[in-house]
Amino acid sequence: MTQNFRLKNGGLINRDKKLSFKFNGKSYFGFEGDTLASALLANGVHLVGRSFKYHRPRGFFGAGVDEPYAIVQLYRNGETEPNIKATEQELFDGLEAKSVNCWPSVNFDIGAINNFLKIFLPAGFYYKTFMWPKSFWYRVYEPFIRKAAGLGVASTKHDKERYEHKYDYCDLLITGSGPSGLASAYAAAKNGAKVILAEDKPRFGGTLLTSDVNIGNQSGKDWSESIISELKEMPNVTVKNRSQIFGYYDHNMLVMSEKVSDHLPKTKKYHPNKRLWYIRAKEVLISSGSIERPIVFGNNDTPGVMLSSAAKEYLKVYGVLVGKKPLVFTNNDSGYETAIEFKKNGVDPVVLDTRKNPNSEIVDEARDLGIDIKYSYVVVAAKGYKKVKSADIASISEDKRQLGKIERFKCDCICVSGFWTPTIHLASQSGNKTQFKDEIDAFVPGKSKQNETTLGAANGIFSLEQTLKTSFEAGNELSKKITKTDKKISVPNVVEKKSSQHDKFWCVPLPKGKNYKRFLDFQNDVAVSDIEIALREGYRSIEHVKRYTTLGMATDQGKTSNLNGLQLVSEIENKVVPSVGHTTFRPPYTPVSIGAIVGREVGKHSKPTRKSPMHLWHEKHNAVFVDAGVWLRPRYYKNGDESLFEASKREAKNVRSNVGVCDVTTLGKIDVKGPDAAEFLNRVYTNAWLKLPVGKARYGVMLREDGIVMDDGTTTRISENHYHMTTTTAQAANVLSHLEYYLQLVWPELNVNVVSTTEQWAGAAIAGPKSRDLLQKLFPKIDVSNEGLPFMGFIEGDLFGIKARIFRISFSGELAYEVNVESDNGNFMWEKIIEVGQEFKIQPYGTEALSTLRIEMGHVAGSELDGRTIPYDNGLDGLISKKKDFIGKRSLQRSAFTAEDRQRIVGVVPLDKQTSIPEGSHLVKDDKAKLPNPKLGHISASCWSVEYDNPFSLAIMKDGKNMIGQKLFAMSPLKNKVIPVEIVSSHYVDPKGERVRS
Amino acid sequence: MRSQNEFSYGGDASVKRPLLNKEVSDQEWDNFVYNRKSLRGKHLELWQHISGCRQWIKVERDTSTHEIFRTFKADEEVA
Asked: ipTM value of the model?
């Protein structure tokens, strides 16, 4: 294809570098410096998509961030990204893009039938129609709507690109490099302030690139280039293009998304795709300019209808004609600027001005150039389906209510200008209460909330001279206060054409007998009639109207539609716009890629990985690891082609019959020291602690104030004022904060110190009937007999020259010990245990076998202490002291906690002694009962009992105490299983606890 | 100024735990454990410098604007 709509010369593109790209499978050429939009327009392609609801053809409406239509699916270097604005995507060689929201193709879209059914799809249609029958929602309506109304498709593949986060600070952050941004940045930089200047487009200069002005005897464009190159040289200034400030948060923190690589065919090595900047600024200068707003008329969504400023930008920046027979429809002088540019490039435009006799330098210039101007004229409707072919135009009466005779006018594009809307999003996000400015029919920022100052067009100032003057001043004043330097810059001489007052006209009335759709929101297909329906149905608040009609809720967030929507509501309601008020502006200003938000925190980087000192040994011995909080723990040690089930059974069996060793380094450990340590523990735990002798351990349960079990573990008295507390792996951090809370805030009078020692100690649990024999060999000098080291005893020992702590505690329910050494010696300890243990047939065991062992013993763990259970539920009520007060005790008196049929832990065995019960299954009386089947309890943990060689589970069930012996059903609709079961004691193995004391 | 990420929120700082071993009514206990005002505006709350010195501090913060007015040490009385 040839670039038929590209001018012979002109524009800021690099015509020496031709780029090839594909759109919907077809190949085209563009130039370096093009956007996908400008390159397509150069090739005469106007049809780029289908609209969201009616699937009407969609073209280009803008030339930048405000674009509501031209959303494409982008393919780049084997990756795909949805919902990219073609007006923002820079062209690169080999770019591929496809239309979204159309099936089977953009030219023939089955969904377009909605367009003919549109009478049935008015505002609130989804809310009204798809409510009934209820069961249809999931099965019929939702899937259909999702297919019909989706935008692009997110990739399901892992994203290979890298995204970075960067944190920065500055004296002045300036959001946009148009005239106000450049002037204020320059003045502040000269005063020595640390300045960050952000521009969302690839080129700096904003409107200076397209407007016909003169600053200090240079063209606007040349002036902006000289300022930028000077700023770039200054060490106190950071200048960033392709960078959008999209959020203004508390404490003057702003977030910026920098597109580092999107304009390249492939991300450079070591470069991120995007970089997210968190910037704290002392002062924020909002110089985000303004966005042209459309005038509403019939079929104003037809491809070829676009903003007049966009048409001018395509011409001046890209050397592209959006049409060869343009019609300019304007209510102000801006439209004339576009018409003049057309004329200068050999194309004859016709201008329709809604005003009767505008009088200004710009209008005069257009007239002098011989441009055909029709005053008091409007476009009634665009004609043409996939592209504008003509327009129905008419004169309009002075009161703007009566249309004259309709004339058909042949044209291939309609450039609309309905005046300018200041971009107040950031100021509003900062908390600024905006105010309505009557002269410009739009909102501007009011009193600053945080340290933000809005400049230029964003503040409703459209004169360049005034913009430069106030911006130089603001940059100087704000930086002067920070740097104590005052280098006053003289404001350059400005030559610009004076413009006249715009016409407060925004919507063309319908001609008699015609029912054209007049769109307000182009992406979400919200028309004038939809707002009318919403108001008729009683919606009054603009926030409700927005949600009911979806006005301004599309991915462009109503940048071109919101104000006209407000005009309409105020007109129908007979209120003034400021009293209707605008909807809330929330970050982000433009869509931000999820990858940029996540940054580097993906996969392994999403959280720290902690490994025990014995990790390498586990790896070498075929351990299969599992995440336990932030730790990696061996789940089982794979022997040959064993499965998880086989391996864990073997390991658990070996503990029951010989001896096993398990890495328990990950257990939380807290040193509790001080003269009041015993008193403190006595308040923290539910049981009594004052009389624990030195050299003894005790099991304790701690509650939250609401009576729910927080954690459990053993605590050992190492010496008079020194206790060694252990917590579960998962709760270690919470328990430490909990203890600190009480010591610092509730009982500061207690002389106690707590510190985490989790990393200081490596731990190995030695469990099994032969563990004592093994321990004796490891510590030949110590009396490890039942008398010398009784159950819950503690002793220090020497492990081949290394200091070790030996605790006689057991989680597996077997005779067991836990040996701790300093972390650096962990691997030495482990290897010694394995080496010496060979003669006792020692095997390492992982968390799966550990679970099996504790479950069949009825020992509770995280799956029972799940933040919903009290001590009684877990059979731990025997540990509640009646004599003393402790954290959470008062809550245990609550009636639900003392109810006769309170839930309690039980054991569950399948009747067939074969079928494992899925965790999470519900216990029910009758498996055939009508839904919802009353739930009696749930399975908290399941294992294969190695003692009895059949499945065994723990459950928390209502009135568990009286349920032993009952025959019930365990149902798992998720796994489609119904298993007849019997309720037994939770202490399935060794109910009297004889083994641990043997 | 420290980043908010270093801190962890700890709830209303004006709540006083009833003394140990003191008889408290159900209502008093419920007020201590559950009932909170959820204020809009100035709020005295607890934060812990969890990724730093591990001190609990009291912070007077505006819940709607996030503005921070005053901070107090754990054992400091709020005037």
From this structure: 0.98
